[in-house]
UniProtKB/TrEMBL annotation:
Descriptive protein name: MFS transporter
InterPro entries the record matches: BUG (IPR005064), Bug_dom1 (IPR042100)
Protein family: Belongs to the UPF0065 (bug) family.
PANTHER family (alphabetical): BLR1237 PROTEIN, TRICARBOXYLATE-BINDING PROTEIN
Domain of life: Bacteria
Annotated TM spans: none
Pfam families reported for this sequence: TctC
Taxonomic source organism: Advenella kashmirensis W13003
Length: 290
């Protein structure tokens, strides 16, 4: 199940993953979209399903570890879901409209914000989104101020930065790449642990003086809590097999996703480390849903 409408990254990944999993499992795999409430509806639906391996979620960090700090949920995803396997981890890019703010690095942006406090704003696809919280982390680390301007989706947010209505934002690498090449935006730094292949000349946030500033939009497969261990292992194998299909490999390379194939326990450990990081950022930023 995809907890988002058709056409978005989560839905695309689910549909690319399904054929490989179907072949490995020998059972029909259908992608069902149950969108709404920032993925909470679909996420809770899977959390309430029978733990028999027949109902799975293609979830992401927003629905699994961020929303629990922003919404009054009926179910806590960390308790109602069983991690099966990570699918993708896509870094963000800090970028600016070069006509509105003339900087060529993240540190120069910090200097500009300190020189003219309260003058600049940054856009995101909505309060509580990874792009919003990346901006809040930026502010917290360097003690600078930017007014957050939330939009109903990353597309409108990026379009307004390109148009010059808002000067600063974070966006995923693959989505921003055409605009970087066209010169309509200036990429300052990526939030990945190492430089990406599709933007090799753009330094990481860590290289730019932001220690431990590593943020990735991650996606993974989940089953309802209580799914038997042998079934978890079987499903994890199917996910890892599907990740190696040519179509999936090509799509992940275009997204600048790092190689995340691994065991279900490794994915669970990763989520256990991610959850408190996002809780801390939300609490310190005072982020609230729109």
């Amino acid at each position: 199940m995809s907890p988002y409408p058709p056409g978005g990254t989560t839905d695309i990944l689910a549909r690319l993953l399904a054929p490989g999993m179907q072949k490995e499992l020998g059972k029909t795999v259908i992608v069902d979209n149950k969108a709404g409430a920032s993925s909470n509806i679909g996420t809770e639906f899977v959390g309430r399903a029978k733990p028999d391996g027949c109902t799975l979620l293609l979830g992401n960090n927003t629905g699994v570890v961020i929303n629990r700090n922003l919404y009054k949920l009926h179910l806590d995803p960390l308790k109602s879901l069983t991690p099966i396997g990570e699918v993708a981890a896509v870094p963000l890019v800090l970028y600016v409209n070069p006509g509105k703010i003339q900087v060529s690095s993240a540190q120069e942006l910090v200097d500009a914000l300190k020189k003219k406090p309260d003058q600049y704003s940054f856009a995101s696809g909505g309060s509580g989104s990874p792009q919003h919280l990346a901006g809040e982390m930026f502010k917290q680390m360097k003690a600078v101020n930017m007014l957050h301007v939330p939009y109903r989706g990353q597309g409108p947010a990026m379009n307004d930065v390109i148009a010059g209505h808002v000067p600063i934002a974070f966006e995923t690498t693959a989505v921003l790449l055409p605009h970087v090449k066209a010169g309509s935006v200036k990429a300052l730094a990526t939030t990945s642990a190492a430089r990406t292949k599709i933007l090799p000349d753009v330094p990481t946030m860590a290289e730019s003086g932001f220690k431990d500033f590593v943020i990735e939009n991650w996606y993974g497969v989940f089953a309802p809590a209580g799914t038997p261990p042998e079934l978890v292992e079987k499903l994890n194998k199917a996910v890892n097999v599907a990740l190696k299909t040519p179509q999936m490999t090509r799509a992940l390379e275009q997204m600048a996703s790092s190689d995340v194939a691994g065991s279900a326990s490794a994915f669970a450990d990763f989520i256990g480390k991610e959850a408190p990081v996002w809780t801390d950022v939300v609490q310190k930023s005072g982020a609230k849903v729109d």
